[in-house]
Amino acid sequence: MKILVCITNVPDTTAKISFTDSDTKFNKAGVTYICGPYDDYALSRAVELKEQSGGTVTVLNVGEADSEQVIRKCLAIGADDAIRVNCEPTDSYFVAQQIAAIASQENYDLILMGRESIDFNGGVVHGLVGEMLGIPSLSPVMKLDIDGKTARITREIEGGKEDIEATLPLVLGCQEPIAEWKIPNMRGIMTARTKPLKVVEPTGDDLTVTRKFELPAPKGAVKMIAADEVEKLVDLLKNEAKVL
Amino acid sequence: MLCLHNIFFISYIYVKLVCKQNNIQLLSAKLIISNHNSTMILTDNKASIKGGEFLIKDIDASQIFIPEEFSEEQKMIAQTCLDFVRTEVHPRLDEIDYAKDTSLMVSLMDKAGELGLLGTSIPEEYGGFGMNFNTSMLVAEACGQGHSFSVALSAHTGIGTLPILYYGNDAQKSKYLPKLATGEWKAAYCLTEPDSGSDANSGKTKAELTADGKHYIINGQKMWITNGGFADIYIVFAKIENDKNLTAFIVEKDFGGITMNEEERKMGIKGSSTRQIFFNDCKVPVENLLFTREGGFKIAVNILNIGRIKLASAVVGASKGVISQTVNYANERKQFGVSINNFGAIKHKLAEMIVRTYASESACYRAGQNIDDAIEDLLASGVEASQAKLKGVEQFAIECAIMKVHGSEVLDYVVDEGVQVYGGMGFSAEAPMDRAYRDARINRIFEGTNEINRLLSVGTIVKRAMKGELNLMPAAMAVGKEIMSIPDFNTEEEDGIFIAEKKVIKNMKKAILMIAGASLQKFMAKFEQEQEIIINLADMLIETYVAESTILRVEKLITTRGEEACSLQKDAALIYLHNAVEKLNNAGKSAITSFAEGDELRVMLMGLKRFSKIEPFNLKDARRRITQAAIEKNAYVF
């Protein structure tokens, strides 16, 4: 089985967010980057599937050279090789285009990725890739088993779960608990440096330009209203907070 | 008056003393005669760096390793250790400390083994990963936040495994190392006895050869045995018959004759298995004698050198963890309507915690790389791999002792202030400072108490000087001459980074040489009985080494990243240097007034004043800048 796992290189969840260039660019200074946590689960499941029934796992990242640290970690976790599309991942459509361009050259049985990245949280790339390749896409996938050409999937839906059977190839957006989160072991780390990492140039054009980023307004002070002053509370919610 | 011109004669007497103590032939005295006539060597940089030489050599920033130079791969290794500790150990800290048996610790060690954390130092041919010394220090640091687990891990990988790795024969290595690398077998180290602690060679455990010459029968009692409750093999030190020195044995649990007391009840590291172990007619095959008969003390000493510097990096890891928790608490805790991080009293504490940890880290990896370089040199000259590692570490025994003391005392400072910032919650067992405070304390005791390590650091320098290995005498004599002359008022400005600060460090070294020279001269053969003065000198030595390492680290960083990007690091280096000079001055005064009188006292105090001069600097503002960055990062800042 050939599996492609698409990963994002995103700021650590505790990173301090600020912008430069008149609020048009994210300020990378002092920020630690990690593999998107949902992508991490997708990769872990891919490695588990490979361990169970053989095959190959290729990691794909649309990103600049500074992504390679995270890509190496994915190789250390158990991917066999990696491809980096050398460009800034400007928007979901652009990223999906790059993934589809790579995927169309190879016959992957499964294209896995996180349900969403944790920087812009678009959550649409899997759907777009599926459409571009003309194959089904499903998200968010919490459980995945493969039996020959059939995938048995459990998907989270509003207020419950849905069990689905689908035929490969598929594009899946993953989330926990699809696999046990993996820490790369020493042997994996030491072999990662010898695994191939191919860099390719992007195709297509950026369709969007960021005009301005804005941080949410800081949380204001909490006003405590006595339990017997409901009218005052309603007044404040209507006229000050303007939420009613 | 100070009579440094007599120092040669006196040092000759001391050589006799030291050599007698160490069964060393008096050949080295000649070397001192030749050294006596050489010129002042405070600026000699040509030769490769040797252990203890920092005291008499100017080291260029480009010559030292800084942690920022760790490769992506090394960082990934460290991250694996951190991830393991955070996901497997931290959620179970209470469970580990109050476990009724050792099964949880054993399962954690097994998981660490699966990840390869137990085999980092073991060569690939024996199932490990053959990483260099500095990487193994980085692993120790990354695992250092694991409380009792860290202790179990370092006892296994350090004192448990290394005696076999470095002193075992091929058969012993092939039999034991692969199982120790994976964690299938866990190891413990049995040196200490009820009446034999710091004086390790006085142990009473006996080994007697059986009549058929095939086994040794070991009888005796060992205590404070880390991992004792679950170890599969024990490195046991015993005296064969009436030998003067110890011999080491590899003892498998299944050899029989091993019983143990219940787990010790301890102040901290409660989850670490600590047992008293009894060997009653324990039958050990003769092939399990490790190294040579009576070679055990050498093993113990050399393995402890490694243990010391690895402990130093482990406590840096622990300090960083505690600092991050404390910064986070200071950010969240509100009093008088604002976060307590707004208060200068708190800012001061946070900055000092950060600065001292940063400094300790700087010196730790500088020494680690020196060890790696020494090992490489020895390998290149044809020395066998394990011997090269041992000799490489032994060469830096002084730095190992210095860093053990510094690191463990920084951690104790950090946890103490951590408790203080947490306030009432710091005293509550519900918050993390309670465990951090209790667990930190042992680090000043094991791997040689900090007192032993202080004595050792100065003692080794003196010993090496007397043996002619460390060219101390000309430098000491030059200092003697300098304090009798008019001070240098040359204020000509030189170009470069930290020019003034490096001059301060040079002077700190002079202060040490001045006091060491004079006190040695005063007490001669009785010098080693003057432990108070030796400890004063050790404090001066420690502060000088660490301050220099920090200054050099930041200088190297500035040359690659530019001054603006390193402003916080520069603040840290300057704060540390100012603190170090003050400590040096206090220790120096204490030493001088302990033995000098009259004119000599006055001259030396003036010399000390001259050698501990430093330009004033607004330390409060510098501390506030560091704290502010930590507050914004909500963690240890570097």
TrEMBL record, chain A:
GO terms for molecular function: electron transfer activity. Residues 23-209 form the Electron transfer flavoprotein alpha/beta-subunit N-terminal domain. The keyword Transport applies. Transmembrane segments: none annotated. It comes from the Bacteria. InterPro entries: ETF_a/b_N, ETF_b, ETF_beta_N, Rossmann-like_a/b/a_fold. Keywords: Electron transport, Transport. PANTHER family: ELECTRON TRANSFER FLAVOPROTEIN BETA-SUBUNIT, ELECTRON TRANSFER FLAVOPROTEIN SUBUNIT BETA. Belongs to the ETF beta-subunit/FixA family. This is Electron transfer flavoprotein subunit beta.
Automatic annotation (TrEMBL), chain B:
Residues 188-282 form the Acyl-CoA oxidase/dehydrogenase middle domain. Its cofactor is FAD. It comes from the Bacteria. Residues 295-455 form the Acyl-CoA dehydrogenase/oxidase C-terminal domain. Residues 71-184 form the Acyl-CoA dehydrogenase/oxidase N-terminal domain. One of its GO terms (molecular function) is acyl-CoA dehydrogenase activity. Residues 507-610 form the Acyl-CoA dehydrogenase-like C-terminal domain. InterPro entries: Acyl-CoA-dh-like_C (IPR049426), Acyl-CoA_DH_CS (IPR006089), Acyl-CoA_Oxase/DH_mid-dom (IPR006091), Acyl-CoA_Oxase/DH_mid-dom_sf (IPR046373), AcylCo_DH-like_C (IPR036250), AcylCo_DH/oxidase_C (IPR009075), AcylCoA_DH/ox_N (IPR013786), AcylCoA_DH/ox_N_sf (IPR037069). It catalyses: a 2,3-saturated acyl-CoA + A = a 2,3-dehydroacyl-CoA + AH2. The keyword rRNA-binding does not apply. Pfam families: Acyl-CoA-dh_C, Acyl-CoA_dh_1, Acyl-CoA_dh_M, Acyl-CoA_dh_N. The keyword Magnesium does not apply. Keywords: FAD, Flavoprotein, Oxidoreductase. PANTHER family: ACYL-COA DEHYDROGENASE, ISOVALERYL-COA DEHYDROGENASE, MITOCHONDRIAL-RELATED. Belongs to the acyl-CoA dehydrogenase family. This is Acyl-CoA dehydrogenase. It comes from Pseudarcicella hirudinis. The lineage of its organism: Bacteria, Pseudomonadati, Bacteroidota, Cytophagia, Cytophagales.
